[in-house]
Structure of TBC1 domain family member 31:
Amino acid sequence: MCLTLAETDTRQLVSWMRGHEGAISSLSIHSSGSYAISTSSDTAQLWNLDTFQRKRKLNVRQSVGIQKVFFLPHSNTILSCFSDDSIFAWESDTLFCKYQLPVPQDGPRIHYRTFAVTQDGKTLAAAGRSNLVHLWCLDSRQLLRVIHMPPEVKSVRFVDFLPDSFDGGSNQILGVLSQDGIMRFINIQSCKQIFEIGSHEDAIMLAAICPKGHHIVAVMDSGALRIYDVRSLTPEISKPPQPLLKRVTKGKSSEGSGLKMKVHTGAGQRPVKTSGRRIQSKVLPSAVSTLADKENDLPNGLNKKRLQALLRAFGEYPAKYRMFIWRSLLHLPENHAAFSSLTDKGLHSAYMCLQERYPIKSHKLQRGLQRVLSALAHWAAVFGETDYLPLLAFPFVKLFENNPLICFEVVATIIVNWCQHWFEYFPNPPLNVLSLAENVLAHHDKELLQHFVACGVTSQLYAWPLLETLFSEVLMREEWLKLFDNVFSNHPSFLLMAVVAYVTCCRAPLLLCTERKDFEYFFHHRNSLDISAMLKEAYRLMDSTPADIHPSSALSDFEPLTQGQYPIFNKYPTFIVEYQSQERERIRQQEVEYLRERQEVQELHAEAVRQQAEFEAWYKQQELLLQGEEQRRRILQEEESKLTQQRARLAAMKRELKVKELNLIDSSRRRFLKHQQDQRRIQLKRLDDEIQRKVLVCCYLPMDQLLTPPARTFVD
């Protein structure tokens, strides 16, 4: 068997990769798009999609077949599942075996044949020829839970997790397609059945869930293809949970503590949400809140003071609920109509060729970044002229890849609050904001600032690169998320304090740098830094900086985006932006005119080339005709010369024949004359002989006989 790859746009064959002897049962693509794993019953092969060459091959004993081999999401780990229920994890680069999940010894064998992993790659669901579904925790490598399906389920054909907008990738709802053609969706925490699709009369054969979890596609037993809207099937999907209240309680959870849980049919609520409501009634005060408490109240029942206390205790928010907390902290209005009006204007002219300046391998991320940047440019003209805006927005585009509205509003909220006074000196860096950070550094670390001054390094070199990229160039993903957990939970001045804290925490290597290029490299690349120590230093700076130089005195408090319509953003020199916009439009018009003229010139050139080609073809044809005519003339001349030579040879032959004929005639005449002479000579000789004879006779006869005439005799 072979693996065939085709281009989706042109539908042309890209590569044909051979290697499998049996039928390919599954195909898994790495999140980077550079590698793929193809699986058959006897082997699994790792392919490099950049070179279309096989990188590694996994062979197994003939007695142990392969069920499935696939990549874990957002990871370099390969999970291989075999027919003996053994599951191994491998490092994709070295194919080193990282760990093996223990095979359950209790109870009958399940004979795994279908598998599913949550989007965060932490939970594995496995099922097969029984009514049991095993849930594995891949972090602890232990069996997390065993789910008993209803008695009418004898075996499981297919399992897959249903994504949710608020679960942070740790999907809580599992879809289980059994042998009876019914796909049941179960909450893996409460083991309650949320809803089901399909029936005994109209059974489902195959099913697939879209990456956003909005739709389910099912192939029915009758051959029909049905698409289900998940939100119309159940109201329990994409509802914001209340997890933090559950964390601060001392009571026991309502969930069972046992490993095995049975599925309860009927639409059940999420245990987190139920317990959250119960705890909320105990924790929240019944009296009227004070003004400070009202200011700290957040949407969805959260409280900013409690979140800050939780953040001080753990250093970061739970990854499972981070996006939900951010949306509450930022008071995102979710203005769908206003955002649609911005996106309906299409791509902004400033970001038409964004991929040339910022090439991104993922086309989806490229389009998402273009869409968000264009919406920002349509919202305020200055964002169409801001060169560093793609660097500022890209981390959030990648984080909210599947929700452009939230991504836009998060970036807009950051610009309005944490980027205050950034555009007053546009298109130059915000010197007023950088001076605030420099004043804080001068107060807390004069030696480091004097070293910067001695080396000719200004705040535009050590502070501005961190601000314009929002630390995305110097921090890892988890460090960056932890930082912005704290940024969003504090006053907008905390971002400047984080810049100063980063510089002071890295003072040892910075004091060793003397060249300007070394400083540039340092603030544009990742360095070894303890993010917890940096945040601790930032909080120390927030508390110990004098009020007269504290950035909070120059920056306003947090102001969320307005509901319905987005606020007007005009805190920039409009004449410069308008001039740049006019210049950009003029340059664009000139470019369009140039492109039009170039197109006309290209068309004229193409026409001239075509005519030149036609003339050359005509001249070549005429030349070939002349050459043919000349060749024919030469052939005729050669034929005429040959004919003349033949005629000359024929005349010579005729002359030779004539001469031969004349010679022959002459020789014949001579022979005839000689013959006649010989005849005459013979006759004369004969006459002479006769005469002699007669003379002799006359001599011997008598005279009378000589005189008597001879007697004549007549004979009748």
Remarks:
- The chain has 22 helices and 22 strands.
- Confidence is low (pLDDT under 50) at residues 242-258, 266-294, 712-716.
- The longest strand covers residues 53-59.
